[in-house]
Specification:
This protein is of the alpha/beta class. Helix content is 38%, strand content 19%. The protein contains seven helices and six strands; from the N terminus they run βαβαβαβαβαβαα.
């Protein structure tokens, strides 16, 4: 007798059609303090470019923008909307309401998330999204903290909480799904330019 496979109610892969990209606090006064901040910002920008090409809505957040400033270019140019917040978790400061119009009928979109600081605002926001029943995919290479240990522990905690830890290229190719996708050449070029 062979063991039966558990029934899955939702696919295990990301799809552009059922996703939203959420970029947390890539702000001008925060990024200089982030470990490998330039790499993290470049990877987040790559995700923004892929999302724009595949028509995935990109939402940003800004923590206390009066003190930390706006989101930095090039990330800022890919944001379809920005949720300003004072709470560390964006769900407590309007993110849930901002996401609601993006959901087709009653099905919540999956959230691909990246940002800073991984162990504070990103962690709190991702946990809040998981608490609402959303599936959360964390692009680890587009997440940063001032200290590498804090980022690494945040990724471990998010994995234990039910988030799926991925990389930006995983996101890009799962969203494409096939080399036959009309945007394959454009996205492949973005990958090669990284």
């Amino acid at each position: 007798m062979t063991p039966t496979q558990p029934q899955r109610s939702r696919p295990l892969r990301m799809s552009a059609e059922h996703s939203v990209l959420l970029l947390i606090d890539f702000q001008e006064r925060l990024m200089p303090a982030i470990d490998r901040g330039d790499d993290v910002l470049a990877t987040a920008s790559f995700l923004g470019q892929v999302a724009r090409n595949l028509e995935v809505t990109t939402v940003g957040t800004a923590q206390n923008p009066g003190r930390l400033g706006p989101n930095l270019p090039p990330v800022a140019e890919y944001l379809d909307l920005v949720v300003d917040k004072m709470a560390f978790g964006a769900c407590e400061d309007g993110l849930i309401d901002a996401l609601a119009p993006l959901d087709p009928s009653h099905e919540q979109r999956d959230v691909v998330i990246a940002g800073c600081e991984a162990h504070v605002c990103l962690l709190s926001t991702a946990l809040g999204l998981l608490e609402t029943g959303r599936r959360v995919w964390v692009a680890a290479d587009a997440c940063g903290s001032r200290h590498e240990t804090d980022r690494d522990v945040a990724m471990d905690r998010l994995r234990q909480a039910g988030a799926t830890i991925v990389t930006a290229e995983m996101v890009a190719f799962e969203w494409l799904n096939t080399a036959g996708n009309d945007h394959f050449k454009t996205v492949s070029k973005l990958v090669k330019e990284r």
